[in-house]
Amino acid sequence: MKIGTTHLFVPGPTPVPEVVRRAMNVPMEDHRAPDLPDFVLDLLADLARVFRLREGRVLVYPGSGTGAWEAAITNCLSRGDRVLMSRYGQFSHLWVDMARRLGLDVVCHDVEWGEGVPVEAYAQELRADPSIRAVFVTHNETATGVTSDVRAVRQAMDEAGSDALLFVDGVSSIASLDFRQDEWGVDVAVAGSQKGFMLPAGLAILGLSEKALAAAERSTTERCYLAFRDMITANDVGSFPYTPPMPLLHGLRASLDRLLDEGMDDVVARHHRLAEGVRHGVKAWGLDLCALAPRWYSDTVSAVRLPDGVDGAAVCRIAYHRYRTSFGGGLGKVAGRVFRIGHLGDVNEVSCLSALAAAEMALLDAGVDLEPGSGVAAAQAYFRQALAAEGSRPGPWWSATAGPRLTAVT
Amino acid sequence: MKIGTTHLFVPGPTPVPEVVRRAMNVPMEDHRAPDLPDFVLDLLADLARVFRLREGRVLVYPGSGTGAWEAAITNCLSRGDRVLMSRYGQFSHLWVDMARRLGLDVVCHDVEWGEGVPVEAYAQELRADPSIRAVFVTHNETATGVTSDVRAVRQAMDEAGSDALLFVDGVSSIASLDFRQDEWGVDVAVAGSQKGFMLPAGLAILGLSEKALAAAERSTTERCYLAFRDMITANDVGSFPYTPPMPLLHGLRASLDRLLDEGMDDVVARHHRLAEGVRHGVKAWGLDLCALAPRWYSDTVSAVRLPDGVDGAAVCRIAYHRYRTSFGGGLGKVAGRVFRIGHLGDVNEVSCLSALAAAEMALLDAGVDLEPGSGVAAAQAYFRQALAAEGSRPGPWWSATAGPRLTAVT
Amino acid sequence: MKIGTTHLFVPGPTPVPEVVRRAMNVPMEDHRAPDLPDFVLDLLADLARVFRLREGRVLVYPGSGTGAWEAAITNCLSRGDRVLMSRYGQFSHLWVDMARRLGLDVVCHDVEWGEGVPVEAYAQELRADPSIRAVFVTHNETATGVTSDVRAVRQAMDEAGSDALLFVDGVSSIASLDFRQDEWGVDVAVAGSQKGFMLPAGLAILGLSEKALAAAERSTTERCYLAFRDMITANDVGSFPYTPPMPLLHGLRASLDRLLDEGMDDVVARHHRLAEGVRHGVKAWGLDLCALAPRWYSDTVSAVRLPDGVDGAAVCRIAYHRYRTSFGGGLGKVAGRVFRIGHLGDVNEVSCLSALAAAEMALLDAGVDLEPGSGVAAAQAYFRQALAAEGSRPGPWWSATAGPRLTAVT
Amino acid sequence: MKIGTTHLFVPGPTPVPEVVRRAMNVPMEDHRAPDLPDFVLDLLADLARVFRLREGRVLVYPGSGTGAWEAAITNCLSRGDRVLMSRYGQFSHLWVDMARRLGLDVVCHDVEWGEGVPVEAYAQELRADPSIRAVFVTHNETATGVTSDVRAVRQAMDEAGSDALLFVDGVSSIASLDFRQDEWGVDVAVAGSQKGFMLPAGLAILGLSEKALAAAERSTTERCYLAFRDMITANDVGSFPYTPPMPLLHGLRASLDRLLDEGMDDVVARHHRLAEGVRHGVKAWGLDLCALAPRWYSDTVSAVRLPDGVDGAAVCRIAYHRYRTSFGGGLGKVAGRVFRIGHLGDVNEVSCLSALAAAEMALLDAGVDLEPGSGVAAAQAYFRQALAAEGSRPGPWWSATAGPRLTAVT
């Protein structure tokens, strides 16, 4: 008997806002109807704004983020191409694995899990080996809660005079962390619907620079379902090469409306504020993040290291069954040694406090020695201060008119 | 720009469970279709089980709880009838007001807000005045968070040899607090859809004993829309005298399924556990409840008294605007002096902790001196202990099969 | 096993438009939240526009249309008041019954079912009896598909120098047929949510002239739940005297947006066009309407008279079970002798053709001698002509840009 | 201003049943939660029952049917493999195109559009060329409304002693037409969610024989996102290799419940009955189907040939804009020369009549000379006869109890 909503704090899928959920609840429609093209063309144009992409285009496939990883490789590269990659978590690990299975010649740098992309090592490789055709970065490693410096990688590429393509996995960063495709010179950016876009899984999204689009015309890798060319030809007239998942497209419309209405800078600031609160809580528990230094801290997911002898799977199991709260478990190398709190999408301060409150109980039950309520108290202090600062700006809720009305409650 | 769900902790309407919400999302249908009667008859039969009513029947009107108050009076009593009532909060106050406006001769006992029904005073009145035709009790006074002893009132009536009808306002008690219509000899029980039934407002529900049904045949009060007779005639063939609000009836079906599946004893126990946790939190803050003694404590709503100089409306305003959390304000005599936390319906332990966490921030911002995190920590301690006891029972989530699967998460 | 949507052609509830249905699917919210008043005030203002009411106000209760009938009487009249009414169908019959039960002194004119309000008889009564305090008209009698001339009644009242109030039951006319509260001098107009407003049942709606509002201050009838005064006091600050059914209010918001966007004149014209098509079909079958002359024809519901020996209940039963189509049966005096096709709300030409197609099969199966397809063909001819005329106006779908796009379908 | 539902008669996506639509409206959940595996394992087991597959397994990918086409090829075949294919419509054409782009050595037989798979030519090829590794059949060609004889192809393969794999595109046949994977010896069956499964697009579904699964272990084609091995490893523990589109999986659960409750034989019979009605209508118009002989007639889609000089795109355009009805246009070689009526999924007799009624008006407006109402009348005659036969079986609606209740309608 499940009573009460299960509280969801995995780093994707994230809670879907009501307005988005309603937008997806549509009857079926003819995807070749004459009024669809306008809808599609506007949608793609607004989607590009979230990538901060003007010079290029975005593509949306029915698929998962993994499908977008594959589309990036099979369209822009050819078997045998030499590429520079690095591994610092389960998801960067899986992308390397995919690249090898798809026939790329991967130069892979392994980094300690808890750090991010090794910019200096990349710089050396790029200077030493001009045959590198693409450089891969996992912008936000969801398994460890580490955000890497994409701009620095671009700078290293430029300094080395590399003409390689820059591939970025932005699945758990785009639409929540700061991401600037044009400005950072990202050629292929990969995203999925179930993270910052606050939708169910089911859309594989790519942001492509003009250079990436040109490369796709030259690739000799066989591909058809995920081929850019077929999608572009159809998109050019506001259509798709096969039946699109219309509910998700309507949901994306509503999600874009909300993101762009809030403004991407404010979206980024909000995720930072919520993450800071959570980190204050973790610190108050006396625990460490998986991310080894503040510059790696992720604003969308915090992976918390557990003391020796405490099983991360047990923490998640207790939280789920006893407290109806879902956290992410440890993956790959850190399985059992961390648990992860997702704080992205449609979350706010009180949601994050409930995550901390539930985590405290599960940690205590699992044998961690911490002061009950301490994490909540530390986050509360931070949030009160942060929101008081917000509140001092003139805003709708602090206005004279709102006040009297509430006072009149009887 | 509203980001993240607004957290709802008013004492009604309460969060609607997903399964109930889905059940209400239906296309329109012919309310005279031949398969409707079976649906209606089963629904009414199961609804009576929640009232623990076998000797009598339940009626459901399109309306609010206030409509059910009026139906109770106009159907079972006649203008000029002498009735015994008491006031100890805004809702008992309003029922007295209605009774007078509808022409009853009300003997009213005023009690300090924070206490409940004055059983001893009732007993004296009943012994002294055999002309009293009905005795009214507000089972759970939502404005003060006070639960009264209905069984004791019945006992007093019996001891006084009264043949009056016993009217009970169970709007914020039925389907969440212990309520036993047959056993307690309640003749007219009034409920609404938006509290323990976890539905939107819109259904006025009455539980009627055989004695109440007989009284309704004798009443001379004019009534038509809310007349029992018309409703009973239609209900007898599984129909309604006018177009019923079908989405709410489908929602009620789903709500009853959940309540009866959980079991009414467990529903009551759950509400008690959640309320206890909240009360531990309030105590840790150093604040008092509006309810003046533990025997009055309500398990569905806690009204918290504020220190002098702190405005309850400001607490609610800050919680709503700054922390996206809705609490109930003070009503009537206690306006501005209390704020109320609803903990009924589809809530669980972590929901209650988030209520306490949000309240702490709003109280601190409003100038209350309390230890941040203290209420959360006190509630956590209680919940951990309570749920560990639950967990030691053999249950689905503690089983051998569930364990390994979770461990296998990668 | 029900396969495929049941096709709904009862004269209420009517199909709910997708956009309205989505709007109702909301989580619960605090009905005393500070941003609710703006929502409520705008809603009531726009609702008045559908009534074409500027001099007065509209009120919305949780209830059914029957509740609105009662609110009209108990608020504006006192027991013993003399009122002029007439009966020409089940719903006018029931209003007379209610008026008597609530203590009015009813002068009732019975008219053959199939005709409407007897204007000349009313005129005579009004000239003869200046003590008449209110005149009642059922604008659209849903049981017989008869629309009455409200404007003519007002004229008769004025010519007789009557200062009586004019009460109009507009449950199945307002928001679909031409209705002009100010212009026609209607004092009390009664509506429900489940007809032209395209919502589920659950809202009792009243449009009130200033004169009606003044009369309500003088009435001595006891009432509380449906009292105008309590509702007005709350509405004045954008609130309600008890918990409102928020999903229906959000649905009403969406419904008003659609009605006002289409424009009330176009709403009326559309209902006329659809009704005309249906009537062409009925005529082609060789059957008669219950309405005895064209001036009584209703544009929201057509009641079709059946040949002797054919049971209307059988027609409905066959349609429902065999063809998954719901029609309205005969009520009261015409039970078994008619069946009714509702064509109001979110319907269009093809919906009406499917109603005719289903009806033809059920009629044939029930033994009616008609030419299969004849009704459909006659309606098609009318619709083709009517829509071609529409199409000759410059419109979005006939534009140059829409054409090529559709041609490009591959 | 769109008034009234747009009537949807494209051959996919098809109308989604209410119960399925409600099932998809879920909040997000942790796809690694411990109770998910049971859900997933049951889902896949029941899905196999729709394929009538016991010896093998089904796989479900986030993707479209095109993705399933590609997964079939890249997993079970290697570049350079010789395969036997045929083209008789746009979709069989596209699969040939994909096979060539993915590097297969395609032996392709072109057949007149309107016929189906050339069994005799296949038999000759198979006898002559033992190097053929796979034989492809488009079971139901959606562009022409042609169903092919898969069983005969299997027989030809067996007679030729071929050990090739049999690939079948069942996108518009599985879950609506008779399909028997085990019995017919189909090795790879491809389906999508948006046709017989009555869901939105977004799931690529494959049914795989043991032989196909073994072949997949030997294929040297690079693949990762759509690799069977990764999916099987995850499925074996009730999981997915990446975040699954949970709303669609919940919808699939509801869809399977309905299909299996109706029974696959009854599902097939219902589609046949509806298609027969539509074909009677088309014949009455004096028009021909694109399918050149009755043995090719498809029970899920009817492509109607237009007289010379009539533009199929105009028919669709008029139907869509003027009559709010979506039909499928002609694709590829028959663009402009046919229009298509989809009659699969959650449709019933009255839906099909409304399709015919709308089509008649659009055809007349586009200049086709036909008798108005003639198609509707012919289909009505067929449906009345067919359903009367159904009705003579003892059923719930013909029972004694249902009758009286309906008779009692007043």
UniProtKB/TrEMBL annotation, chains A, B, C, D:
Known partners and oligomeric status: Heterodimer of a large and a small subunit.
Homology family: Belongs to the class-V pyridoxal-phosphate-dependent aminotransferase family.
The name this protein goes by in its record: Tritium exchange subunit
Function (record text): Soluble hydrogenase catalyzes both production and consumption of hydrogen from suitable artificial electron donors or acceptors. This subunit catalyzes the tritium-exchange activity.
Keyword vocabulary terms for this entry: Aminotransferase, Pyridoxal phosphate, Transferase
Binding positions (substrate): R340
Cofactor(s) demanded: pyridoxal 5'-phosphate
GO molecular function, a single term: L-serine-pyruvate transaminase activity
Modified residues (N6-(pyridoxal phosphate)lysine): K195
Pfam hit, one: Aminotran_5
Domain Aminotransferase class V: 60-283
